[in-house]
Amino acid sequence: MIEINQTIFGGLCLIGALALTLAWPLGPRRGNHILLSVIIVALFLLAAYNLIPVTWIPTTETWKVILIGVGLGLLAVLYRDVRRFLRYFRNKVYRVTHPYYWYGRYYRRRRRSY
Fold this sequence. Notes:
The chain contains four helices and no strands. The chain is an all-alpha fold. The chain has one domain (6-112).
């Protein structure tokens, strides 16, 4: 079995997470976006777990490393969400703004039948 160094694996996870956050093309489809968001958080978590040395945060407080990784991942997902919003949803207006459309078609049909 091939053995990979822990720092190399953490560096590859960090590079992959940054590439998905900053360089991967944004798409309008919601399913792909949610999948990539989960992958980004997981890669940041793995990068933090493998790159932060034990001398900085002891082994007994591993939850802090996990918290750092998840926090960085969520910040990256937030950044990606803002980029996606500015790309696809800027200047979009909900088209049904008149009160005529606030109550469904059922009530309009019911009134007309009298």
